[in-house]
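Fresh eyes needed here. I'd like your take on this protein's tokenised backbone:
***
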Amino acid sequence: MGWKDVWSRVAKMEAEGERKTVSVPRGLALSPTRVAYAAPKPTVENLRRFAETPVARRALNYIKNRIASMEWRVEPRVIAVGDEGVEQRQRVAAVVRSLQAPNASDSFQTLLEQVIEDILVGGFGSVEMELSGDARRPVNLYPVDGATVQVNAEWNGDATTPHYAQMRHGVASAAVPLLDDELMYVRLNPRTHTVLGLGKLEVAFEAITQFFQAHRYAGKLAANGVAQYALWMKDRTPEQQERLIRWWQDEVEGTGRVPVLSCDEKPEVLRFAGGTDADLHLQWQQFLLAMIANAFDLPPMMLGVLNDVNRSTAAEMADEAFQNAVVPLARLIAEHVTRDVIGKRLGWDDLRFVWSELESRDEMQEIDAQLKMLAAKVLTVADVRAMRGLPALPEPHPPTPEEIAAQKQQAERAEHLSLFKSGVLTRDEVRERLGLPKLVTADAA
């Protein structure tokens, strides 16, 4: 059965409210047989295995952990007032609760980490979206192995026609159909010639392969696993040479003993390399690390290449890594959550998902900008508190008549005191205005 027949069959199936996909449809058989000295191919299994190596894991974790740990919020595009405002705030709270607990076993951070991992590895982050029927938590979100999702290249935008299908056990006839509003499919580096994305690890695959080969050779060389020299002895019969080899292997090699040789001529040592750190090809390994960092849009400093890095350039490189590697992917995810989860699945186009920390990575720069806009009366105190994720201040209660009278009396006293200090009023005039009796001096008495 071909894929055209599968799409024709699944198009007639109706969508159900329960989850249709499984988290690990191919089971645990993900470890291919390794072939010695064969260049690996960028298959899904090899990409997954490469993602567990130190260099790739460092690059993946920097981007993944930075995005997953950012603060977020759900806000209305246009704030409604009156009864519509109350209903809008209730829907915002419902979306927030759904994202905080997307399913029975995941939090939003664990869900996001799995999706970002698939996006960076193969460019195929996937989340299944199913309505829950609960008004307080209207939608359930389930992470899906994006490598098992097939995209219908002939999909014409019809909401009733399956846009995706998940393969189970690699059998096309067992594919599970998914409508466009049932799956959030995040493509990294979308292109016109294919419906699939391109992951950062796929771009770095060849450089990582070469780094493994160079690193493995350097490890064997450092552990004396590779012969670096040979002994040349002249005028020896085959029997004598065979006896010397057996004696060396049995009595000297690996024992730490000092070998004692007696012969007419001193043996000559033939070196195959220089015997220095240059034999480890460390500069080539650093170059490969820089190429891997470029594939992940990171500066080489993030992968441990510290050449030409000082205190002044380190901060600029850290900011470059955030702006080039973190911000674009975070915006892509926020766009998909807004469009797919909130817009398509829930039908609430007036709400959107926003990263609170995305605009400014430096806390002091953000505070300084907010204070300047507050002083220029561009923002109010309520606006600044909302931007920082703080609750609104309680409404101040109106002043009582006693408080108004006390404020008025205090202002009048301050005005009279100012006029007295400037010589406009005398002391007796000030006391008279304040309703106080005149002072009786000793001369008047």
